[in-house]
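Contributing new complexes? Match this layout with adenosine-5'-triphosphate.
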Amino acid sequence: MKTQSNLSRLMGYAGSYRYLTYSSWVLSALSALIALVPFWYLWKIIKEVLTALPDFSQATDLTHNGWMAVLYAILSMCIYIAGLMCSHLAAFRVASNLRTETMHHIVKLPLGFAESFGSGKLRKIVNESSGATETYLAHQLPDKAGAIATPLGLLVLLFAFDWRLGLLSLLPVLLGFLIMMSMTGSRMRKKMVEYQNALGDMSNEAVEYVRGIPVVKTFGQTVFSFKRFKDSIDRYSVWVTAYTKSCRLPMLFYTTSINSVFAFLIAAGLLFTRNGVTEEFLLNLLFYIIITPVISVTLTKIMFQSENALIVDDALRRIDSVLDLQPLSRTNHSKHPASNSVELQDVTYSYDGTKNALEHISLKIEAGQTVAFVGPSGGGKTTLANVISRFFDPQNGRVLIGGVDVKDIDKKELMNTVSFVFQNSRLIKASILENVKMSRPEATREEVMTALRNAQCMDIIEKLPNGVDTVIGTKGIYLSGGEQQRIAIARTLLKNSPIVLLDEATAFADPDNESRVQAAFSALAKGRTVIMIAHRLSTIADADRIFVVKDGHIVQSGSGEELARIDGLFRQMWNDYQTSIQWKVAKEV
Ligand SMILES: Nc1ncnc2c1ncn2[C@@H]1O[C@H](COP(=O)(O)OP(=O)(O)OP(=O)(O)O)[C@@H](O)[C@H]1O
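Output block (do not edit by hand):
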């Protein structure tokens, strides 16, 4: 947990730009003070008119004073804009440094972190929480400096005019200060956190609603799904109302009624001190009445600033929830794997600390072997692949590559040694060439083309308008699941890592696509250690060894022929598979 104050933390991220932030506060305060000067000229104009009445020709300074008021107003505005430019430059720097630090930290976390944390939540933290600090530094803090300077300047001005008015104007400032102190305490903080949580829930539900539209429509559950979204909006509305009632309304009531209350106090005071009232005092009172609305405005501003400070507090708390997560341990004595074998020694892994997804697993895969993990859904096949590629570190046991614990292999070397071809190999919105080059940016165009050819992708390239330079995901150019997986295989071929983990796709739209994907898999397997997560038994024919995974245990292992001969889960699965094929053939005939 961070112990620094929010502001000093933010200034840490600003680096040398912090001086721009400080300048913006000074400029904003200066602008607020200069903004009071036109009021003084206004008062001079009124005073001159009142004194000259009924002969206006006596009022000779009206134009001069009018121009001076306009000039000071323009000067104040220019200084304010200069302050905003400084604060924006610093705020952009802070927000981008904060985003960069968060992203750097996320990269160091276990690879499976983003999936388990929730990508929507992560996006909110990286974008919106950092954005909140940007608005705070760019606008809110300079405004606060101005809002504090204004009442102080006013006090000095009013004391210079008449000490009685000076004292009188202290009262609303003090009262406002006390009310704000009482509101920014733990009650408002608690309400702010609840309000922000409700806001987060509402945006999550919106994302889930939009994401789930195809499924929802398929099953005709539109009303039910919409109700969940609607409920989150209702919960948010309840919090907004409660928050506004408890914190904002009393303050708004106070600031809007302040002038009338204090004008009334002055009038009452005058009645009691009639003797002390001079013509000059009355004119000064006029100035007081002209200028005191500024106090209301600045108090309202300060109130919203304290609220904004709570928003930043909450944003930094959310960022810390990511920064406080432990990255994967790094080794100081990096070792090189002696071969491309993979071994698990007594590995146990649990996602939630209660139920084990893998339990005491030990297995060995020789270098160059092709093995398949098969078994019922939820048995632990994907989790096994995840611990091998260090998506997560197991709580117990060791994973060895070439006889070396994966924790002792430099992360970059590990990433170059092991590749993972996911079932949903999402391609990014870029050209095919760029998508393939992601695995090895320095590769030449020829190398990319060879990888695409070996991954059976030439039929895809030929039908695209700009061949390998066609940007996919835009202008109606989309690839099927099988086509995307072939491009992903080309990407892995280009990377040329000696160990490949393959999450085999569950379904292909047509047999032609399926046979091409199988051919691409075969090209990938050549000369490599291949670990395949096989969802269908049709794809395990080439496997040297099969591991049957059920309930987090390896319940059987051996070659396909060996396993088919003995009574057990594999033979049962094999028989079911054969029956399904016979049904399929019978139906086609
Ligand atoms: N991110 C996760 N958080 C919590 N539990 C998980 C997570 N992913 C998987 N599990 C649980 O771990 C167990 C093993 O899941 P795993 O995905 O490894 O099985 P699988 O054999 O690959 O299944 P399938 O063939 O359906 O993909 C299951 O009980 C599953 O519910």
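Reviewers usually confirm one structural detail per submission. For this one: The chain has 21 helices and ten strands.
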